[in-house]
Design a protein that fits this description.
Number of strands: 20
Strand order of the largest sheet: 5-11-18-19-10-6
Largest sheet: 6 strands, mixed
Distance between the termini: 24 Å
Structural class: mainly beta
Shape: elongated
């Protein structure tokens, strides 16, 4: 029962509780740097690089749009009506639902939502717009497994991914590999591939697990343990360990960014990870609402203004795709 109360409280702000080492943390979704009081949170950035060298059983799923709702019908207790039961419909105004010039216009597909703990129409409006953006813009979901010591990220973190089964770019296809020779503050990296171009960009896993990026402007050939390898001459110094996963190719065409929404423990102690495509535009500012609140006909509700409680919730994790479930991260 106690855990159910935790879930109910988080659901009011579209957040998710995460249980790690006997402690409960609340995960919410954001893009930009923000602060409140003495607490300051930097802008979200990728925390780990995954390639074919540190993951397995990789699967990409393209999410269908044909069955996604284009209108959320919220049932809630309206504070403007002395907390009586009320209904508010939020259509996807940013899509093609109400665009008569669109050749393939979206159809009206409503979905009922029970908004427990939410009493303000403005909050529900923002919730609906956010969910519609997730449904419309997020196109892919990935699942993979990784070793218990290979995972340096948690639910809500951004990760950068490149494997041999996911080539998101039609040209300039990158290549996954491993660092053969690295070091501290070095200006060259030796990788386990040959015939690389004379210039390009490499992403690699740094000693703390986060992705590092460097550009090379020259190459050299070498042999390590009888195997032909390539030395990349970098434009800046880096710190990278031998054996670190890496991906190299054309500048800014190496990886795709995903956000972890689920981590579970397998019987062999490996981790199963689920992540959604990261689309920064989902977090663009939401314009003030243009709907009329049922408690005051003719009065526009400003969807930007937030109550103190809503500010504490911040911007939460989206449940629009129905993919973000309770996560128990075990270690």
């Amino acid at each position: 029962p106690a855990w159910e109360w935790v879930l109910a409280i988080c659901a009011a702000g579209r957040a998710s509780p995460v249980y790690v080492n006997g402690k409960i943390s609340i995960v919410y979704q954001y893009r930009d740097a923000h602060s409140q009081g003495s607490v300051s949170v930097p802008a979200k950035a990728a925390t780990q690089l995954f390639t074919s060298g540190n993951l397995e059983k990789f699967n990409v799923q393209w999410l269908p749009r044909a069955n996604r709702p284009t209108a959320f019908v919220y049932q809630y207790t309206n504070e403007g009506e002395n907390y009586r039961q009320d209904v508010l419909t939020v259509e996807d105004a940013e899509g093609s639902l109400n665009d008569p010039t669109e050749l393939h216009q979206d159809v009206y597909r409503p979905e009922q939502q029970q908004a427990y703990g939410v009493v303000r129409s403005a909050q529900l409006f923002r919730d609906g717009v956010f969910r519609h953006r997730i449904n419309r813009l997020v196109k892919r979901k990935v699942d993979f497994q990784t070793g218990r010591w290979a995972l340096a990220a948690q639910v809500g973190d951004l990760i950068e991914i490149e494997t041999e089964v996911m080539r998101p770019f039609d040209s300039d296809i990158p290549t996954s590999g491993a660092v053969v020779l690295g070091g501290v503050n070095v200006t060259s990296i030796t990788v386990d591939h040959t015939s690389l171009p004379s210039s390009g960009q490499i992403k690699f896993r740094q000693p703390d697990g986060t992705p590092g990026t460097a550009t090379w402007s020259g190459t050299g050939t070498a042999t390590v343990d009888g195997v032909a390898v390539t030395e990349l001459l970098l434009l800046s110094s880096v710190t990278v360990d031998k054996g670190a996963a890496c991906v190299f190719g054309s500048v800014d065409k190496l990886v795709e960014t995903y956000e972890i929404v689920n981590i579970s423990l397998n019987e062999d102690l490996t981790r199963a990870v689920t992540a959604l495509q990261w689309v920064p535009e989902v977090h663009d500012d939401i314009a003030p609402a243009t709907f009329t609140d049922g408690s005051a006909v003719g009065t526009l509700v400003n969807a930007i203004s937030r109550s103190r409680a809503e500010q504490l919730v911040m911007t939460p994790v989206a449940l629009g795709l129905g993919l973000l479930a309770l996560v128990v991260a075990m270690s």
